[in-house]
Design brief:
Number of strands: 7
Helix content: 40-55%
Shape: globular
Order of helices and strands: HHHHHHHHHHHEEEEEEEH
Structural class: alpha+beta
Radius of gyration: 17 Å
């Protein structure tokens, strides 16, 4: 499984979006097409020109508005640029350039949280916008209590751990399976935290060269990519920021 084009931002986005789409949690019913684009090995420029992958990803009802918010806030025309994609899924300093009022409007109106959350829940979200909320994927996972794709169920500890972008080191490889060591999300003394290191099996069903000792990211227990040191740093940093923000809700 080594057919993958390097530095391909729009495919990177598709890799992270693939598994929840396969599970029918969000995005259009285009999973086979997503996989074909991911496996094509074509460079980002060719895929953007083709328009098909861009059209599919633009129809993800939570992903696409977040990308637009980050891009517009950073004066970037291409919502699928490398920097915007990495900011949302992994994290970057571009998340610091978001106007608070605009972010709240994005949540309340753009994502229609006014209709999906109670007034009390929405008030808490508004407070968090003023306390440092950011448009990183993990903010939505930990701080919006209801999954807002096609499946609008309340989040549980399990679904938060599955929905966040996890990271771990590969210790064993099997047939379409990777075994990793990672720290799961736990609830300790009334607060979200990382637990002790445990083994976890994740699906290895997307192209990419992986070897034992690599650090990889995963979404809904499915491999996304091999992580560089800077990506590990940013993913951990922004995930912790949003766990701490979520813990302000627990008393």
């Amino acid at each position: 499984m080594n057919l993958v084009s390097k530095n391909n931002s729009i495919v990177d986005c598709a890799r992270y979006a693939f598994r929840p789409n396969e599970l029918a949690y969000c995005g259009p019913d285009k999973n086979k097409e997503l996989l074909q684009y991911i496996e094509s090995g074509l460079p980002s420029e060719a895929l953007v020109k083709d328009g098909g992958l861009k059209d599919i990803l633009s129809k993800f009802e939570t992903l696409s508005p977040y990308l637009r918010l980050i891009a517009n806030s950073n004066k970037e025309n291409n919502i699928f640029s490398k920097e915007i994609i990495q900011s949302y899924w992994i994290g970057s300093d571009k998340l610091l350039n978001i106007n608070k009022a605009r972010f709240y409007e994005h949540l309340a109106e753009g994502l229609m949280l006014k209709k999906k959350l109670s007034k009390e829940e929405l008030s808490i979200v508004k407070d968090k916008v003023h306390e440092g909320a950011n448009p990183h994927h993990s903010f939505h996972v930990f701080n919006i209590w209801r999954r807002t794709g096609y499946v609008e169920n309340p989040h549980t500890l399990f679904t938060m751990d599955e929905c966040r972008i996890g990271w771990g080191v590969v210790i064993e490889m099997g047939n379409n399976i990777l075994k990793v060591l990672y720290k799961p999300l736990v609830f300790q003394k009334g607060r979200l935290a990382f637990g002790d290191v445990v083994e976890k099996q994740i699906l290895y069903n997307l192209p990419g060269e992986v070897k034992v000792g690599d650090w990889v990211s995963f979404h809904w227990s499915s491999y996304c990519e091999v992580l560089t040191e800077d990506k590990i740093y940013n993913l951990k940093k922004w995930t912790i920021i949003n766990i701490n923000l979520a813990n302000k809700s627990y008393k």
